[in-house]
């Protein structure tokens, strides 16, 4: 495939997904779809108050309801060995005590022989509470924010240099809570095979982590926990930890001595499995009159729960995105009576970039400089934070490719200057970046006598196409067709792999597959003797040596390069938006996303990942917001009808472009992750385009029509 | 309300304290049993057999055709078509994404039309023909829409995919696939959180333009 094709693949470029046939025929089985023998169903009953304690639980009616096998609460829950005795900051200990820590806190679980019976019986449980006063509003309590850890603050030069610069912007930005909302509801099927041995079919982004956490919580040996998670229906960071409902199902299976299936409701997905934290940010940014940055001051306060100190680093992006001599960043958290937030696609920079890249756009208008020119003037050739060279950075190429694709030369600097079919037309741009890490991974490669290659590692695939990437790498390295390769994943019995999070899998697992295949080829070389073909007929060689198979297991991890280089993936998002001058409705007109993430391994799935992240970013920009009624502390829009994720009609065709220059400083594949950068920056690009179209700057997401109309689009 | 499952408040008026039909069924079943063989009835009551008898009375016959095969089932009137497919028939290709009719993941065809199976009670499809994603291909030969989704990568995680494909086939059959704009509108009841929308549109356009029967 030539470079030009890889720079701009179409929806049909390259190989199709190796697991695609199973997905389009309905044969792919997700966690809740393992209907094991003797299966029972668990349904959770959750608190209707926000803070306080349980006074009483009347479960008699539920217990007597048809088909009910157990009603479990803190009153009768068996002792869980791994629960810490002290109420230290820790994930919710389900069925542990009478405390209610947020609205939607699970208090009991009904288990019955059918789902319908469990659901009905759950409606019969009566819980009385002692209610206490709750606090759920971040905006009203910013003064209570604290630093979550010692290095929550960062200083380079003079933290206040920005304030004395000739041209400056000082603004506040709000990122609301967002919910991952993968289409697959969180679900688990739990089965005890012996007193100290368990099998779970679970929705998780890391079977090994889930395995070790279940072992710890239930006090059993790690090898006695078997986790299956071959197909995961999306997760976006929401399945990086063992949640309380998973523990509940395992407890339930122990109590009723039968397997338990527990699937959350869509409403539960808004309260019990994390979300992107509501975050307040303030940026001060100053520049010389010709547009050279003097200083950046970026402060963030994100919400967390009372029981866990979850902290992102949204402000950190201001340390390294631009070449700026003076920088100050601070990331604080505020404890509220809400469920814990967690990592969500692009955690930290997704929120931070909305503020920084909006502020840069504001600065460009004050300076009357093209926003791309302003970014190029302050382009960081080396990492401003560490002073190290970048392992690979081709962001200038990305700006150029994207600007050409979107037709940036048609943009007008003056807001509101362009219209199309009676709608206001605006252009917006924003950069994005995310650390390019490589985690330890072990891959086993087995060549069978019939020439079939089996590649194994305990990674999950939540959707990006990990199997397709791995098979592409193996096919190229071994010189065999993809049809002869089987990739095994999603099973805790397989060799170690990292969680699928933080855009690390292609770099980590892809490199391990590459190294394992090379090691296997080397083993064939030894059989053949020196000078043999690099890619021999493997089946033939095995036959000649009378071997049933040849296998290797290779450990792979990052090396000394991590000390030598600053490692990041980069993206640039370009959009044109149309804003209806009467209603304030915003429509995406054109979208171009450029990824600078090293070599492209699998163009079809890489393109889909970029487009998918862009769409989630469009949701972040225009519609997504979890709304809490602070009088009750309850999420008021916990459904797809009320919390709007983008639908097909919201989305135009999207161009995904790739710089496609290998970064061999980070790994032997030259490939870096792109799951996060696909989203990071998109919200700012849209907000900046809305400003270019209307002259209205929206600093609180999402950009709903009321914010534009109220601000005077309608004259 | 003590739960957040969007269930109606149980009726707590004293005269209808228990779901009365069940109580009646239990009692009448037992009375009938006592009239026949008192000893067996006592034993049945001791072993909670009254529950089982009531259960049998509470179920209703459901005859339908699923993917060309006839099924004669006994189902509770409250069971949704989605739960019957997934939990009783192990046809798990049809997905539960919200259980509220808001995401389209559970879309199946009933007599050729797309229907949200989570908002369809099983007994509503008595005598009808249901097609699920498992019934779309002809043996090993994929339906053109399945081929097009594969070719254009109309999915990532694959969870919304069966619903998208069932909806996409219906979209063409309904005559609602005449332009990119029209496809987007008529496919907006199927949410894809991975964001495969442009690829889904490409797939549907290819099938529509290819002119193969869907």
Adjacency order of strands in the biggest sheet of chain A: 3-5-1-12-9-10-11
Output the radius of gyration of chain B.
Answer: 22 Å
End-to-end distance of chain B:
47 Å
Low-pLDDT runs of 5+ residues of chain A are none
Helix content of chain B: 40-55%
What is the strand arrangement across the widest sheet of chain B? Answer: 2-1-5-3-4
What would CATH call the homologous superfamily of the largest domain in chain A? Aldehyde oxidase/xanthine dehydrogenase, molybdopterin binding domain
What kind of assembly state do the chains in view correspond to?
A: heterodimer
Total E-strand runs of chain A: 26
Largest sheet of chain A: 7 strands, mixed
Category by helix and strand content of chain A:
alpha+beta
- SSE topology string of chain B: HHHEEHEEEHHHH
Shape of chain B: elongated
The count of DSSP E runs of length 2 or more, i.e. the number of strands of chain B, is 5
Instruction: State the end-to-end distance of chain A.
Output: 54 Å
The total count of helices of chain A amounts to 17
Taking pLDDT < 50 over at least 5 consecutive residues as the criterion, the unreliable ranges of chain B are 1-19
Q: How many distinct folded domains of chain B? A: 3
CATH topology of the largest domain in chain A: Aldehyde Oxidoreductase, domain 4
Overall outline of chain A: globular
How would you describe what is shown here?
The complex is a heterodimer of chains A (715) and B (214). With 715 residues, chain A is an alpha+beta fold. Chain A has 4 domains: 34-132 and 184-234 and 239-270, Aldehyde Oxidoreductase, domain 3 (Alpha-Beta Complex), CATH 3.90.1170; 155-182 and 277-381, Aldehyde oxidase/xanthine dehydrogenase, molybdopterin binding domain (Aldehyde Oxidoreductase, domain 4, 2-Layer Sandwich), CATH 3.30.365; 388-435 and 560-715, Aldehyde Oxidoreductase, domain 4, CATH 3.30.365; 438-557, Aldehyde oxidase/xanthine dehydrogenase, molybdopterin binding domain (Aldehyde Oxidoreductase, domain 4, 2-Layer Sandwich). Chain A contains 17 helices and 26 strands. In chain A, the strands form 6 sheets. Chain A has a 7-stranded mixed sheet with strand order 3-5-1-12-9-10-11. In chain A, strands 7-15-14-13-8 form a 5-stranded mixed sheet, with helices on one face. In chain A, strands 16-17-22-23-26 form a 5-stranded mixed sheet, with helices on both faces. In chain A, helix 11 packs parallel to helix 12 and helix 15 crosses helix 16 (682-694). The N and C termini of chain A lie far apart (54 Å). The model of chain A has no long low-confidence stretch (mean pLDDT 96). With 214 residues, chain B is an alpha+beta fold. Chain B has 3 domains: 14-58; 60-135, Roll (Ubiquitin-like (UB roll)); 144-210, [2Fe-2S]-binding domain (DNA polymerase, domain 1, Orthogonal Bundle). Chain B is 41% helix and 12% strand. Chain B has a 5-stranded mixed sheet with strand order 2-1-5-3-4. In chain B, strand 1 (60-66) and strand 2 form a beta hairpin. In chain B, helix 1 crosses helix 3 (49-58) and helix 5 packs across helix 8 (197-210). In chain B, 47% of the residues are buried. Chains A and B meet through helix 2, strand 1, helix 4 and helix 15 of A and helix 3, helix 4, helix 5, helix 6 and helix 7 of B.
